Amino acid sequence: MRLVPVTLREANAYVEAHHRHSDPVRGCLFCVGVEDETGVIGVAIVGRPLARALQDGFTAEVLRVCTASSKKNACSMLYGACWRGAKAVGFTRIVTYTLAVEGGVSLRASGWTQVAELPARPGWDGIARRRDNEGYRSGARARWEKGEITRKNRAAIPEAVDDRQLML
Known about the structure:
CATH architecture: 3-Layer(aba) Sandwich
Number of strands: 7
Largest sheet: 7 strands, mixed
CATH class: Alpha Beta
Structural class: alpha+beta
Number of domains: 1
Order of helices and strands: EHEEEHEHEEHH
Strand content: 25-35%
Number of helices: 5
Shape: globular
Helix content: 10-25%
């Protein structure tokens, strides 16, 4: 297996064809793929954090990882590449989310740490801005991180989170 560059269009097409529960994304910072002798067997899409509280300019988020092969280590290889790519352009921390029912073996294998368990959300609809929640998938999730909390990105962490929850 080896890492290969892929465009957002190619990565989104792969996600649409193979991902179990997530849809393609609108934008990204960069994408990466992994291929074997048969062709591309997985993709990852990295972008800005969706959570406003994490948008500090030093944190990136893995928005999608999708593999359609049973090849061992493909996901771990993609997660590792996402961190190295983000770090290479100046990010000091990277986050991602998994469903609570997913074990996170690939994340642990590539050195990520689970830092939070988050409850299911009711949806994106709010009083100030109505949204159609059709197709919205709610469920408990876990947040994973890699990198370091610096003085610059520490301000982006909500006050309710104490250092024990960060598990750094």
